[in-house]
Amino acid sequence: MASDLELSLFEQELVEVRELPEASRWLLERDGSVSLGLLVTMYPSGSPEEFYLARIRWTNLFEPASLKFLRLDTGADDDPTAWPKCKGFRPSSLDACVSWTAEGHALHPDWRNSPKTAFKTRDKPVEFALLTLQYELDVCYDGRGHR
């Protein structure tokens, strides 16, 4: 359960991220299922016809967020074709094995103890997650996952 402080910071940050220049490329909505969650539709800069719906959720705003990709038409979270192929994203496993996600840290508990992979608390965790995801799509994108 999110604290009042986390909820307040989350709401404040949502207002701020909607003003970012990058946000003009996003469809950003609250995830009504959880108090600290977003749904964002994004596309890679090199493939503007390829839209991806990401679900980003925090159980603690100061820890890594969970990242899942959903089917645009149904919202299902169990389809590898909903996932982009990017560095550390594993469509066939339906997870992102990267140090800025909760899934990455669940797969690699040892990352917590490494200066290179330990998650650093962010002043603006929502902005960090959205901009990092957009960066991965823009720089590392290599197509859509397969069944």
Give the integer mean of the pLDDT values: 95
The backbone outline, from C-alpha atoms, is globular
The first-level CATH class name:
Alpha Beta
Q: Beta-strand percentage?
A: 15-25%
Largest sheet: spatial strand order: 1-2-3-4
Tell me which CATH architecture applies here.
Answer: Roll
SSE pattern, N- to C-terminal: HEEEEEEHH
Please tell me the total number of domains: 1
Q: Helix count? A: 3
Specify the biggest β-sheet. Answer: 4 strands, antiparallel
Regions with little confidence, pLDDT below 50 for 5+ residues: none
CATH superfamily: Ubiquitin Conjugating Enzyme
Alpha carbon gap, first and last residue: 35 Å
For this structure, the CATH topology is Ubiquitin Conjugating Enzyme
Helix content: 10-25%
Radius of gyration: 15 Å
Task: Please provide a written account of the structure.
The model has no long low-confidence stretch (mean pLDDT 95). The termini are far apart. The strands form 2 sheets. This protein has a 4-stranded antiparallel beta sheet with strand order 1-2-3-4, covered by helices on one side. It has one domain: Roll (Ubiquitin Conjugating Enzyme), CATH 3.10.110. A hairpin with a 6-residue loop joins β1 and β2. It is of the alpha+beta class and 147 residues long.
